[in-house]
Amino acid sequence: MKDRNVLITGGLGFIGSNLARRLVLQGANVTILDSMIPEYGGNLHNLGELEDQVKIDFADVRESEAMQRVIPEQDFLFNLAGQTSHLDSMENPFTDLDINAKAQLSILESCRTHNPGIRIVFASTRQIYGRPQYLPVDEKHPWHPVDVNGVNKMAGEWYHIVYNDVYGIRSSVLRLTNTYGPRMRIKDARQTFLGIWIRNLLEGTPIQVYGDGMQRRDYNFVEDVVDALLIAAQETKADGKIFNLGASDPITLEETAKLMCGKVEGATFRKVPFPENRKAIDVGDFICSYQAFRNKFGWEPKVSFDEGIAKTIEYFQSEFSHYV
Fold first, then answer.
1. Does the domain spanning 183-216+250-286+305-322 belong to CATH 3.30.70.100?
2. Fewer C-beta within 10 Å: the chain N or C terminus?
3. 196 pLDDT exceeds 80?
4. Which CATH class is domain 5-179+218-244?
5. pLDDT surpassing 90 at residue 1
6. Alpha helices (runs of H) in the chain, residue ranges in sequence order
7. Phi/psi at 206 (nearest 5 deg)?
8. Is 34 helix (H, G, I), strand (E, B) or coil?
């Protein structure tokens, strides 16, 4: 990526900032577009000492004028900006629609008009599958979203595929699952429950595990996800394709809580009944198959959850005040 022009929407957020850091080290010319809306995770501290090595445009992906301003001259677009909260999508469905669907169409139109040679990677979610009919969930699994967020992210990813197929705007989609790591949002559970669990650990509050805790999950460390994003951007065989990411070591929520508590002296967890608003959209066991992406490009998660969560907790122990 040396000397290539790269745009990251949502680049001051969790995944975007980790990607930006990798790209700066590789010698890319990085432009970040971020709205810095408090609920969506943008944080200037995420770039820290690298802030003067990237160009930052404080704007919203819903502003077509902003996209027309930043898209020309870019070689790559990592389209990571989005509304990620499942509960928020149910309480404010039209906001979710505007960000995760309508704005995505606007971005693609800006690319078609001003830079049809750009290469796009769109970050989607395993949420589009809903409650699994079988495990692990592969890309052939039926789509049955259980919330508005899943519906709109599904629309967003298919806009990218249509513009790839019809207009030749090279686009690929990665469906992410429970990404975690340094610089994630821990203020609340808007990005992932792991965030609020880390905050609970460091504030001495018991982790709350909903239900019986037997629901299984797979987790991807952010550096593994950055590897996958860079592969998808540079491999022409990814054009017009959708791939799951996932992990090789899925564990239950109770096991997750026990492992995390073991990293902080005196930490505890307790099981509590599901809140009704969360129970209605919970998907139960969920494990993604990343076999298609592995077979095509050789990607495999390198960081175990035990190692990754230790690194994550250690990061927030020293940087906690910047994230709450």
1. no
2. C
3. yes
4. alpha beta
5. yes
6. 14-25, 64-70, 86-91, 93-97, 103-114, 148-167, 193-203, 222-234, 253-261, 276-279, 291-297, 305-319
7. -60, 140
8. strand
